[in-house]
Design brief:
Isopropylmalate Dehydrogenase, binds NADPH dihydro-nicotinamide-adenine-dinucleotide phosphate, alpha/beta, binds magnesium ion, single chain, NAD binding, 3 domains, 15 helices, binds 2-oxoglutaric acid, magnesium ion binding, magnesium, eleven-stranded mixed beta sheet, EC 1.1.1.42
């Protein structure tokens, strides 16, 4: 087996050796089952595509329960340092307790490495059971801001010294009168910055232009949270116009033309922009957006949104194309080149150790990783094998329970079928 070399970034460009060392985190709960299946599929695809000329040299790094058992720490500094050094990593899901205990290790990794984009493509594979009539109409790519918003973890329990201090400050210094039950309120803070918003929207627009997409929708709740979510929307429009000029047409421009020259002129300007192949930058308030992705999904293409909205939207859109068992993702910093690939789903603890769940989300996250490395031939093999395997109705429990005449296989069995179909 080759010794392996480090991936490097030179002048902002990823330099990938033929045998890159890639750190992986196995994950909690169903993580070990999924990783055993997914790593075999990724290795097989690379092997089939490059016949030994390229290979991945895995390097395990610890996080979560396995890390705690072996080192007494949930997220050892060595794990963060190793991923920083080796640039690209892949992980299984990690458990976060509810209402107390450790803060999310998944969020900590994103924040430590400043992986400001959570990229979650949502696409349909023929034959996957879906709750909607035309799942093939859903073809969206989510860009979720990954380092700010209420995920910053600035949150204090009721009655703590910190929340008492904050309440006192809000009431006495800022004249806040509408905290309904101050004596029993926990307090959370939601930071959203211009830099954070703009770098995320920049990534979404760059992606949309490179991939020939038609539109980017800025999703926000800016009517209620004016200076965080509303500001995100405005910073997004400002960035689009100032950095992408003639390549885009924004709804902000539309509104200005409408005010000056009327609706017909604004409609005409948008029509001309569309005909000229310009990228349309629009926005939607989060609640109506969640309705419209169901009622008219083909109107939405690339989605740029804040952290919490992006979390909800990821799972909702995944459901439309067959669920969380087939929902990949990547956490990326487009400036430093650092990236951690991971599924959208969590640890699904009730299935831990049963070799039962669908490994496709991690496999497709690996497929995204291979494409990110420029190993498109191996990535294509994975897409082809997933399409072929699902079309032959060989599926895990999550699809089998919704399909007729399906052959249900285990997590490992699905990996076997994919490898056989490559
Ligand atoms: N990035 C990460 O590491 C993430 C971690 N988490 C963490 O995971 C833990 C559990 O969270 P929970 O909210 O239950 O969400 P999960 O995504 O873990 O599971 C919810 C349900 O989704 C379905 N599901 C999940 N994974 C798969 C899969 N691979 N194949 C098929 N179906 C799947 C199962 O549905 P069914 O019951 O219908 O079979 C499962 O019960 C929490 O601690 C949470 O914080 C959550 C999200 C992301
Ligand atoms: O960190 C967690 O436990 C949850 C993360 C999550 O839901 C997500 O990344 O979509
Ligand atoms: Mg989530």
């Amino acid at each position: 087996m080759p010794v392996g070399e480090k991936i490097r970034v030179e002048n902002g460009v990823l330099k990938v050796p033929d045998h890159p060392i890639i750190p992986f985190i196995e994950g909690d709960g169903t993580g070990p089952d999924i990783w055993a299946a997914a790593s075999r599929v990724l290795e097989a695809a690379v092997d089939k595509a490059y016949k030994g000329q390229k290979s991945i040299v895995w390097k395990e790094v610890l996080a979560g329960e396995k890390a705690f058992q072996q080192t007494g720490e949930w997220l050892p500094q060595e794990t963060i340092d190793t991923i920083r050094e080796y640039i690209i990593a892949i992980k299984g899901p990690l458990t976060t307790p509810i209402g107390g205990g450790i803060r999310s290790l998944n969020v900590a990794l994103r924040q430590e490495l400043d992986l400001y984009t959570c990229l979650r493509p949502v696409r349909y594979f023929e034959g996957v059971p879906s709750p909607v009539k035309r799942p093939e109409d859903t073809d969206m790519v989510i860009f979720r801001e990954n380092t700010e918003d209420i995920y910053a973890g600035i949150e204090y329990p009721r009655g703590s010294e910190e929340s008492d201090k904050l309440l006192k400050f809000l009431q006495e210094e800022l004249g806040v009168k509408n905290i309904r039950f101050p004596g029993s309120s926990g307090i959370g803070i939601k930071p959203v910055s211009e830099e954070g918003s703009k770098r995320l929207v920049r990534a979404a627009i760059n992606y949309a232009l490179n991939e020939g997409r038609r539109n980017v929708t800025l999703v926000h709740k800016g009517n209620i949270m004016k200076y965080t979510e509303g500001a995100f929307k405005q910073w997004g429009y400002d960035l689009a116009e100032s950095e992408f000029g003639d390549k885009v047409f924004t709804w902000d421009q539309y509104d200005r033309i409408k005010e000056e020259k009327g609706t017909a002129a604004a409609d005409q300007a948008q029509k001309e922009a569309e005909e000229a192949g310009k990228l349309i930058i629009k926005d939607a308030i989060a609640d109506i957006f969640l309705q419209q992705i169901l009622t008219r999904p083909n109107e939405f293409d690339v989605v740029a949104t804040l952290n919490l909205n992006g979390d909800y939207i990821s799972d909702a859109l995944a459901a439309q194309v067959g669920g969380i068992g087939i929902a990949p993702g990547a956490n990326i910093n487009y400036v430093t080149g650092h990236a951690i690939f991971e599924a959208t789903h969590g640890t699904a603890p009730k299935y831990a150790g049963l070799d039962k769940v669908n490994p496709s989300s991690v496999i497709l996250s690996g497929e995204l990783m291979l494409r990110h490395l420029g190993w498109n031939e191996a990535a294509d093999l994975i897409i082809m094998a997933i399409g072929k395997t699902i079309a032959s109705k060989v599926v895990t429990y999550d699809f089998a329970r919704l399909m007729e005449d399906a052959q249900e296989v285990k997590c490992s069995g699905f990996a076997d079928a994919l490898i056989a179909n490559m």
